[in-house]
Amino acid sequence: MASKQSTWSPLPEPAPWNTDKGAARFGEIVVFIDGRTETAGILEFAGVLAEEHGARLISVFMQPEPAVTPSETFARGKGILSVIEVHQAQLERIEAEHRALFEDIVRHHGLRSESEWRSLPYLSSEVGVHAYYADLVVIARPEPAAQIHPGRSGRAAVACEGRGRRSLGGRS
User: Fold this and answer.
1) How confident is the model at residue 126 (pLDDT cuts 50, 70, 90)?
2) Could you give phi then psi for residue 39, rounded to 5 degrees?
3) DSSP assignment of 70-136, as one string?
4) pLDDT reading at 3 higher than 50
5) Residue 41 pLDDT more than 60?
6) Contact (CB, 8 A) for 167 and 159
7) For residues 36-51, b (16+ Cβ closer than 10 Å) or e, as one string?
8) Which of 61, 78, 113, 115 could serve as 119's disulfide partner, Cβ 3.0–4.6 Å?
9) More confident residue, 68 or 8
């Protein structure tokens, strides 16, 4: 029977178990968010998990791809600089809103002071590094348009794959 373990990666070390509750304890939880999914719910979910486990919460903001209008594609000369400035201002506003929400969650749940906010540019190759070193990874994934329910714009997918841990599946 073929092993699913990669030939180049070390064998995973087991997650520490809390024998009182019979549950794994997580020291670091990473939550990935972007400007396209509903952020409050996914941050709240990650905050509750971090509070329950006494974990450090790290929010990684994936800067969204700039939304370019058809008229902006015709910008030339100084018009290009104007388009870039408008897009940068939009991105800074989106990131500031998400960061403030993250800081509120950290305060509300009394999370560890080492909790931090990180921001990555669109299509950054560093995404995997953040996930690899975490004990638990939480991501928001939008539902297909036909399946969106009022008041719920996305689902949380929780993976416990960092450092060879188990997977926990999705949450609606």
Assistant:
1) confident
2) -90, -35
3) GGGGG--THHHHHHHHHHHHHHHHHHHHHHHHHHHHHHHHT--TT-EEEEE-TT-TTHHHHHHT-SE
4) no
5) yes
6) yes
7) bbebebbbbbbbebbb
8) 61
9) 68
Confidence category of residue 38, pLDDT binned at 50, 70, 90: confident
* Model pLDDT, residue 75: 84
Rounded to whole angstroms, the Cα distance separating 166 from 161 reads 6
Residues counted in the chain: 172
Ranges of each domain in the chain: 25-171
Dist CA 139 CA 143 (whole Å)? 13
- DSSP letter for 21, please: T
Would you state the structure tokens that stand for residue 16, as one six-digit string? 């520490």
Q: Token pair for residue 132?
A: 């690899």
The mean of the pLDDT values for the chain is 75
- β partners of residue 140: 156
Secondary structure class of 59 (helix, strand, coil): strand
Domain 25-171 has CATH 3.40.50: yes
Encoding tokens for residue 111? Answer: 């999370």
Share of residues in the chain with pLDDT > 90 (%): 30
Token couple for 101: 């929400």
